[in-house]
Design brief:
Radius of gyration: 25 Å
Number of strands: 7
Shape: globular
Helix content: 40-55%
Number of helices: 30
Structural class: alpha+beta
CATH topology of the domain at 3-208: Neurolysin, domain 3
Length: 717
């Protein structure tokens, strides 16, 4: 069974926002290339080379995919029909196991296609994706809504008690049956056809949404007067000049419309008019009334989702998406969010009062607006804690912080990373690679790919994924895992310095990679975890960034080589709860609006009005906006991935804060016994057991939400 299908059937979420038509660049009328004369052999062949085989990026071109897809589809179809038409009694061994092993070629093709559509989305790639996403959706529906195949699955399920299955086999069989039902296996022929039509229409809409957002993110604001850049760090100004030079704008500076470029301007630029201009361009991505406006696309997605949920027997899309999660129901997710929301809003009002007072004292005759928040927050941080983020950045050189993440993984989990960049193919010259070894016995765990920098055609944000996942069924398979970021590369000849927030993101995404490398399951169908668990290991990993051992070794000043002084670390830690109102409300408003948008029986048609009215009902502070406004919310509308699921980060952080407490309670955050228990009970077991039960086995109880309140500096309840 292909990785993509396992994700659909199991209702789990892979480690990244990795949609079936992942982010595109600008809308284009370009036609997909003809496949009639293209030799797709390099793409279809089993991967060769070291480490169990690696993707042949040096031999593959986008034009091969239209030729490869039909071949891979035909192979998968043969595999599935052989299972369907088997005349032996339907059992775990005759149905479920062969399904787990079906579709190796499709796995490889779609793995590489995901990188092209997410990291290398040229106009040629966009055109191919527009053509093939609905075709692939229809193909999977054709196979897995086949009544004869479901009859085999059901027969195996119905006889499960007599098959003497072990607990993992029984869990996989029961989950496979349930996932077929959830996909529509019990519907009539006409209803199944309708579900397939809806899935195809959704894949088209997801592509359209992604194209439009990326098109807006590939715009930029030109600055031609250096005075407008006052307050910005020299290294960042140099990167803006490099961005302008790349766009053939000599003597100017270019602020690209992505978070990594916008956030420093909003934080440091003293030119208030520039801050407002940059802020408005950024928050209005997809909401511009022009060709890239996404509001109508979102309304169509919501209508299609509701129709599908009803057909599948669910009250609405939120209930459909939460059918296989730890939270279980929309109400449970909302309960946690609304428990945190009032404290977060109250903190924002305090933060705004502090900023307004400081602005008044400085003689600035302004009222704090959203484009002022980050700027004056930094001034308050300086005044309250004598901490300026520009003091921190010189100690956070990208390469060093990456090495710090590798070091922590080695110390905690016995993973060793040895760089082998240049020895295996990569999809871009800037991608670095590392061989991963288990230090306990020396066996190869896999390869880690690190794609750090923003580029044209690469979707925004940061994500992790895997080109091949571990499994033991059918023979051991090692892991090929990747991290993808959008850091702003330093000017030529200069190191890339990142913010503390960027460094935290690096550790976060690397936590996903660790989760992949530590996986130890037999059946790939028990690998993926529920969506509201998937962010948990990555959020836990963030905690080791500011440990003294990591800082002493890797947070070294890029000019002097001196480690970050303890006095500066003390300031960071003392200010750790600073601006938590902003951070929490920015995220939580997006998560609450997501759930309210999908937990309703009548689809929203006026998306802007819904967003505006919902935030007003919540009491959203006027001085800030959602982290992801609906018109640009890729998590929700470039796939199903996090739709009715953005709450997952808070759900996972509740477990994360409680898990970090388990380490700190030992008196040693590197405590090996705790790390080993975390590894064996939670990180390596995939979804072999219920994740709530697994957490209880690790901690001895359910997670304590007060650990989250303490971390954010909110009153303990």
């Amino acid at each position: 069974m292909t990785a993509r299908l396992r994700a659909v059937l199991a209702a789990t979420t892979i480690l990244a926002l990795f949609p079936a038509g992942a982010a595109m660049a600008q809308t284009s009328a370009a036609a997909a290339p003809s496949s009639t004369s293209v030799d797709a052999t390099p793409l279809l062949a089993p991967w060769g080379g070291p480490y169990g085989g690696v993707p042949p990026w040096d031999k593959v071109t986008p034009a091969m995919f239209p030729a490869a897809f039909p071949v891979a589809m035909a192979e998968l179809r043969r595999d599935v029909l052989k299972i369907r038409d088997d005349t032996r009694p339907a059992t775990f061994q005759t149905v479920i196991e062969p399904m787990e092993l079906a579709g190796d070629t499709m796995d490889r093709v779609e793995s590489m296609w995901g990188v092209y559509s997410s990291n290398l989305a040229t106009k040629e790639v966009q055109a191919i994706d527009r053509e093939w996403s609905p075709k692939l959706s229809a193909f999977y529906d054709e196979l897995y809504l086949d009544p004869k195949l479901f009859a085999r699955v059901k027969a195996a399920y119905d006889s499960r008690a007599s098959q003497k299955l072990d607990p993992k086999q029984l869990r996989l069989l029961e989950r496979t049956y349930r996932s077929f039902v959830r996909r529509g296996a019990l519907l009539t022929d006409a209803q199944r056809a309708q579900v397939s039509q809806l899935n195809q229409a959704l894949s088209v809409a997801y592509n359209a949404f992604s194209e439009k957002v990326l098109a807006d993110e590939e715009t930029w604001i030109v600055v031609d007067d250096a005075k407008q850049l006052a307050g910005l760090p020299d290294s960042f100004v140099a990167s803006l000049k490099a961005a302008a030079d790349e766009r053939k704008l000599p003597g100017k500076w270019a602020i690209v419309n992505t978070r990594s470029s916008v956030a420093p301007v909003l934080t440091y630029a003293t030119d208030r008019a520039l801050r407002e201009k940059v802020w408005r361009a950024f928050v209005n991505r997809g909401d511009n009334g022009g060709a890239n406006d996404t509001n109508a696309t979102i309304a169509e997605i919501l209508k299609l989702r509701q129709q599908r949920a009803k057909l599948l027997g669910f009250q609405n899309h939120a209930w459909y998406r939460m059918d296989d999660t730890m939270a279980e129901t929309p109400a449970n997710a909302m309960s946690l969010m609304m428990r945190v929301w009032p404290a977060a809003v109250a903190r924002v009002h305090q933060e705004v009062a502090d900023m307004q007072a400081l602005a008044n004292q400085s003689g600035a005759k302004i009222t704090i607006e959203p484009w002022d928040y980050r700027f004056y927050a930094e001034k308050v941080r300086k005044a309250k804690y004598d901490l300026d983020e520009s003091e921190v950045k010189p100690y956070l050189q990208l390469d060093n912080i990456l090495q710090g993440a590798l070091y922590a993984a080695g110390r905690l989990y016995d993973l060793e990373f040895k760089e082998n960049t240049g020895q295996i193919p990569v999809f871009d010259p800037a991608v670095r690679t590392f061989v991963v070894t288990d230090k306990r016995d020396g066996h190869n765990v896999g390869v880690f790919y690190f794609d750090a920098y923003a580029r044209s055609g690469k979707r925004s944000g940061a994500w992790a994924t895997a080109y091949r996942r571990q499994q033991e069924l059918g023979g051991h398979r090692n892991v090929l895992a990747s991290n993808n970021n959008n850091f702003v590369k330093g000017a030529p000849g200069q190191p890339t310095l990142i913010s503390l927030d960027d460094a935290t993101t690096l550790f976060h995404e690397f936590g996903h990679a660790i989760h992949s490398f530590l996986q130890n399951v037999k059946y790939p169908g028990l690998a993926g975890t529920p969506r509201d668990f998937v962010e948990y290991p990555s959020q836990v990993n963030e905690n080791w960034l500011l440990t003294r051992d990591v800082l002493d070794r890797y947070a070294k000043h890029y000019q002097t080589g001196a480690p970050m002084p303890q006095a500066l670390v003390d300031k960071i830690e003392k200010s750790s709860t600073f601006n938590q109102g902003f951070d929490t409300v920015e995220y939580l408003s997006s998560a609450i609006v997501d759930m309210k948008l999908h937990d309703r029986d009548t689809p929203v048609t006026d998306v802007d009005a819904f967003e505006r009215e919902t935030l007003a009902q919540l009491g959203m502070p006027k001085e800030m906006v959602m982290r992801h406004r609906l018109p640009q919310f890729n998590h929700l509308f470039s796939s199903d991935a996090y739709s009715a699921g953005y709450y997952s980060y808070l759900w996972s952080e509740t477990m994360d804060a409680d898990t970090w407490a388990a380490f700190t309670e030992t008196g040693n955050v590197w405590d090996k016994a705790t790390a080993d228990r975390f590894r064996t009970v939670l990180l390596s077991t995939g979804n072999e057991t219920d994740r709530k039960q697994a957490y209880r086995a690790f901690r001895g109880r359910d997670p304590d939400v007060n650990a989250l309140f303490k971390r954010r500096g909110f009153p303990v309840q």
